Amino acid sequence: MFSKILIANRGEIALRVQRACRELGIATVAVHSTADAEAMHVRLADETVCIGPPQARESYLNMPAILTAALITGAEAIHPGYGFLSENAGFAEMVEAHGLVFIGPSPTHVRMMGDKITAKTTMAALGVPLVPGSAGEVPDLRMARSVAETVGYPVLIKAAAGGGGRGMKVAYDPASLEEAFLLARTEAAAAFGNDAVYMEKYLDRPRHIELQILGDNHGNVVHFGERDCSLQRRHQKLLEEAGSPAITAAARDALGETAVAALQRFGYRNAGTLEFLYQDGQFAFIEMNTRLQVEHPVTEMVSNVDLVREQIRISAGEPLGYGQADISFSGHAIECRITAEDPESFAPSPGLVGVFHPPGGLGVRIDSALYGGYRVPAHYDSLVAKLITHGRDRAEAIARMRRALEEFVITGVKTTIPLHRRILDDPTFMAGDYTIHWLERFVAQN
Ligand code: ADP
After folding, report:
1. Of 329, 356, 351, which is closest to residue 341 (Cα–Cα)?
2. For a substitution probing ligand 1, which of 286, 294, 437, 438 has the most ligand atoms within 8 Å of its CB?
3. Domain parsing of the chain, residue ranges
4. Does ligand 1 come within 6 angstroms of the Cβ of 165?
5. In CATH terms, is domain 207-445 a member of 3.65.10.10?
6. What separation in Å is there between the alpha carbon of 90 and the centre of ligand 1?
7. What's the burial of 43, exposed, middle or buried (CB within 10 Å: 0-12/13-18/19+)?
8. Partners of residue 75 on adjacent β-strands
9. From the alpha carbon of 232, which atom of ligand 1 is closest?
């Protein structure tokens, strides 16, 4: 096992990784920008290194600075969290080239899945069903027209290097195809430095259902069931559940079997998530994330397994030590992503936190790096807390989430807590009867 790990991240996820390290008896190194000198992840780490100015490009994305911090502190491994460098294959390679361990999959798999076209062709070859669409890249408008004619409108144009919902445009009819195609390319080039796009049929009422996977370095791969992340705004998740209110245990097992078999065939290791759209009883793969996900706590609550601990054990070379039959699920979990944003306009609301009073009690978990007197910087993602509740069933998890949201007090910055309260009170949400398009309309109408 490692004796010291550097955590190349900030905020709640840096704390989350620190917690797993502490329980395993591993010392932690926090890196931080000058804007984060007072941050909780810095306060709680065993050692800290300032790696640059506030701009992420010069700090949390500054590979030489992070590697130097690891080398001078004698860390043996780097946990990248999510976002920042977590899906940067070049970074993973550099970490390995310096004799350190990257806590994640092999750089080859990070690169393979980072290109969503390669990811889809790889998965299709392994028998995983896809959303109908182009066979690969769509290089020009002529090809775009022909794909759209074949799969039928509406179609979605997506960036091959995409992430965070950027570089994605819908064309509802032939007249709007040209504009959508050009916009998607321009946005992809600006956001990812890569204007390659591909196309999919734009599904009208799917759910977003994803499967949590873990693989070790000894050929064992297991899944930890599904998460339903259909509640999204601008293709970004706001609230997640485990399990999905829409699928049966039998459907989960069948999907799990296909996915595990596929990942076993190409020797995947560490944590990964396969994302699917689910409509009319059919799953269709859209992408794979080769890292820990923001929403991993809902899986932890229903499986009672610390996924970060597992990531660290796997990277240290330990075998999983259990098989699929040993993994079982209990109850239901919900996560609300609370951001420092205006709950109506979604304008960012950085600033000084006054009161921070988190809820507690049975079945309530808070993953947050906030504290009273902390200044939320304007430079980073606006996620400030994840509120997770667990209950024996979905109704109990919802009841707990409602009362936890009532108890939660954050002053000084605006947050999306009022929006979550409204969602939790909505009959459609309560019935579990929503698709990926529901929240966008709910937000517009309320
Ligand atoms: P990103 O990597 O940018 O998050 P994804 O491919 O994971 O992009 O898609 C993000 C979200 O966009 C999905 O969860 C879903 O809500 C929506 N989406 C993606 N593909 C389709 C599709 N073919 N039809 C309808 N919605 C889609």
Report:
1. 351
2. 286
3. 4-103, 132-201, 207-445
4. yes
5. no
6. 25
7. middle
8. none
9. 16
Q: What is the pLDDT along the chain (446 residues), one digit of tens a residue?
A: 999 999 999 999 999 999 999 999 999 999 999 999 999 999 999 999 999 999 999 999 999 999 999 999 999 999 999 999 999 999 999 999 999 999 999 999 999 999 999 999 999 999 999 999 999 999 999 999 999 999 999 999 999 998 888 889 999 999 999 999 999 999 999 999 999 999 999 999 999 999 999 999 999 999 999 999 999 999 999 999 999 999 999 999 999 999 999 999 989 999 999 999 999 999 999 999 999 999 999 999 999 999 999 999 999 999 999 999 999 999 999 999 999 999 999 999 999 999 999 999 999 999 999 999 999 999 999 999 999 999 999 999 999 999 999 999 999 999 999 999 999 999 999 999 999 999 999 999 87
* CA distances (Å), origin 244, targets 230, 240, 393, 416, 440: 9, 9, 12, 23, 19
- From 187, 204, 208, 274, the mutation candidate for ligand 1 (largest count of ligand atoms within 8 A of CB) is 208
Residue 35 is classified by DSSP as G
Match domain 4-103 to its CATH number in 3.90.190.20, 3.40.50.20, 1.10.10.10, 3.40.190.10. 3.40.50.20
Q: Which atom of ligand 1 is nearest to the CA of 286?
A: 6
Catalytic residue among 111, 185, 252, 291: 291
Question: Does the active-site annotation cover 291?
Answer: yes
- Name the residue with the closest Cα to ligand 1, atom 19: 286
